[in-house]
Design a protein that fits this description.
The protein is an alpha/beta fold and 255 residues long. It is built from 13 helices and eight strands. The chain has one domain: TIM Barrel (Alpha-Beta Barrel), CATH 3.20.20.
Length: 255
């Protein structure tokens, strides 16, 4: 297993994550083995549930890569469960206020920072840590990442970033484009978003937090890097399969 995700980000590394929407652990492992630094398991818009998350985190560990889990909207109980199962980071969607951020931290950090209940049995099996070591290292080595993807979240960004226990922000450009246009359009690649995207990355970095974002393509990922993002998720398992199949068919037909 590579160094913990948190350690690599704090060392200033730029990390590229795969994205898993389908529940098969072999597929998640295959994605991890393609050179991604980590893989995000999507419970919000993907097909993952807590059972598949546990299975896929184990498969990712077999590939030597950390798993990140995006929980369903408002489901902080799943955040705690994902960490119990060995996730190294949890992403919470639609964190729009100080109260949202505090509730999320309460679920994913142990006292005195949060109120998380003890029970990381699978996480300890994967890490090999004793209970005391797990308790002492957990809050530093597992990341609480909030999604900034609405006009309300932008307005509350300074307050959200100041919450103890919040380790980073993750931008969803599609939802941000919908929110900032008052529902008029979905345009994650719109240049008009760049000002907001740059401001979020700058504010997060200034607050000592990690700036993360979803990029639909490699070209968008390079652009987001230029804006200051350091953990970038690219594409999804379904698009990887489709692209590979298209490439194979194109080669056959060209010949």
């Amino acid at each position: 297993m590579a160094a913990p995700l948190a350690q690599r980000l704090r060392a200033g590394e730029v990390l590229v994550s795969g994205w898993s929407t389908l529940t098969d652990p072999v597929l998640a492992e295959t994605v991890a083995r393609q050179g991604f630094d980590c893989v995000i398991l999507d419970m919000q818009h993907g097909m993952h549930d807590i059972r598949s998350v546990g299975q896929c985190i184990s498969a990712l560990a077999l590939a030597g890569k950390p798993g990140i889990v995006r929980i369903p909207l408002g489901d902080n109980a799943s955040a705690s469960r994902a960490l119990d199962l060995g996730a190294q980071a949890v992403i919470a969607p639609m964190i729009n206020s100080l109260a949202d951020a505090r509730a999320f931290v309460a679920a994913v950090k142990y006292p005195p920072v949060g109120q998380r209940s003890w029970g990381p049995n699978r996480a300890m099996a994967l890490s090999g840590k004793t209970p005391q070591t797990q308790l002492q290292t957990n809050d530093a080595e597992t990341l609480a990442i909030v999604m900034i993807e609405t006009d309300r979240a932008l307005a509350a960004l300074t307050e959200i970033l100041a919450v103890p226990g919040i380790d980073g922000v993750f931008v969803g450009p599609s939802d941000l484009s919908v929110s900032l246009s008052a529902g008029a359009r979905i345009a994650p690649g719109d240049a008009n978003l760049d000002g907001a995207l740059a401001a979020i990355a700058t504010a997060a970095t200034a607050a000592g937090k990690f700036a993360c974002i979803y990029s639909g393509t490699g070209q968008r990922a390079r652009h987001h890097l230029s804006l200051g993002y350091r953990l970038i998720a690219v594409g999804a398992d379904t698009t990887y399969v489709a692209a590979g199949a298209s490439e194979l068919l194109a080669a056959i037909r060209e010949s």
